[in-house]
Specification:
This protein has 13 helices and 14 strands. It is of the alpha/beta class. The chain has a single domain, classed as UDP-N-acetylmuramoyl-L-alanine:D-glutamate ligase, CATH 3.40.1190.20.
Length: 340
């Protein structure tokens, strides 16, 4: 399928992603469990290795599953599964979780560029409540051991779009260095703002990063509020003044896209949502895939909504090959509608 889609779009743009190489450990919990741990529901929290072990022990009898994750990795893997030319840069450790992450990435069709660390590989405990909301407890480990001097200009050359996750702001020097290299290589820089509490904790730096380097920005309602202190539509206007392409996702109402003075509303697709893990990552994947294949902004939004809606129907950010076959078919229909 990848060859077929590349032949349809011979001018396919190449996409590079950089992010935390994290293996997601998905746990089904109750709202009371989140409160007991002292966490804000829907937040992202950095934890120590000891806390990671402790939380897993507390839910030892809970059904769990493990998949390769991390925001940018999810996006890049999904782009590859759609038929895109996508490469991911990440760092893993010398352990079973690292090897699992590497093997899973290769299965997705992504071109991997793995850096090696002596630290244990990172993982993310995804606590999923009955309403599908997820709270993240992240042990970064090797994933956060990427250093600015690990990156070189040559790693970015030949790519058209560089996608980063907002979670990388735990290292200001790294994320800014990566953006500078991407710009030097002629890439458009795409950024997903990650989580509202990440923005609150790094407001000044993220604002400067967006204004100076970012061409394409993705945010949900909570993130856009944290960034601008405004409602979603007003926040969209703020982003559009600072970036070439602004996207604000508004839940069941869909998403809004603004490019210059042009504004587009893309309705949501009704799905049986069981878990929103990866929905934002998959939205970014669909949108960037649309851009890479020359689709209009409205069609990019439709592709993004299709992929995001589909991943909400399963637990975790992992779809079957059958699901991807269906998605590729829907993307082909969207593309055909545009040509008519």
């Amino acid at each position: 399928m990848h060859i077929l889609f590349n032949s349809i779009f011979p001018t396919m743009k190449k996409i590079l992603g950089l992010g935390n190489a994290l293996t997601d450990i998905l746990l089904q919990v109750n709202n009371e469990d989140i409160q007991h741990l002292g966490l804000s529901k829907g937040s992202m929290n950095h934890i120590t290795f000891e806390q990671c072990v402790s939380i897993q022990q507390q839910f030892s009898s809970t059904r769990k599953s493990m998949i390769a994750g991390g925001s940018a990795a999810n996006t890049i893997n999904a782009i590859a599964a759609m038929g895109g030319d996508a490469t991911f840069i990440g760092k893993i450790g010398p352990d079973e979780i690292g090897e699992f992450f590497k093997a899973d990435t290769l299965r997705n069709g992504t071109h991997p560029y793995f850096l090696r660390s002596e630290l244990l590989s990172g993982c993310c405990l995804v606590l999923i409540t009955p309403d599908g909301e997820r709270t993240f407890c992240t042990y970064l480990g090797a994933s956060a051991d990427v250093r600015p001097d690990d990156l070189s200009l040559g790693m970015f050359q030949g790519f058209d779009i560089f996608h980063i996750e907002g979670y990388l702001v735990q290292d200001h020097q790294l994320i800014e260095h990566a953006c500078k290299l991407a710009k030097q290589a002629g890439c458009k820089v795409s950024m997903d703002l990650a989580a509202f509490n990440v923005i609150n904790e790094n407001k000044e730096f993220i604002t400067r990063l967006v204004r100076e380097y970012v061409d394409i920005v993705f945010a949900n309602e909570d993130e856009s509020l944290a960034y601008s202190n405004l409602d979603p539509e007003a926040a969209l206007d703020v982003f559009a003044r600072e970036c070439e392409i602004a996207v604000v996702k508004i839940g069941k109402r869909g998403s809004m896209i603004k490019v210059g003075d042009q504004k587009f509303l893309v309705p949501a697709i009704c799905t049986n949502c069981v878990d929103s893990t990866g929905a934002g990552d998959y939205y970014a994947a669909g949108f960037l895939y649309g851009l890479a294949t020359g689709r209009s902004y409205q069609k990019c939004g439709q592709i993004a909504t299709t992929t995001a809606g589909r991943v909400c129907e399963v637990v975790g950010a992992k779809l079957s090959e059958e699901a991807w076959t269906e998605i590729r078919g829907l993307i082909a229909l969207i593309a055909e509608q545009e040509r008519c």
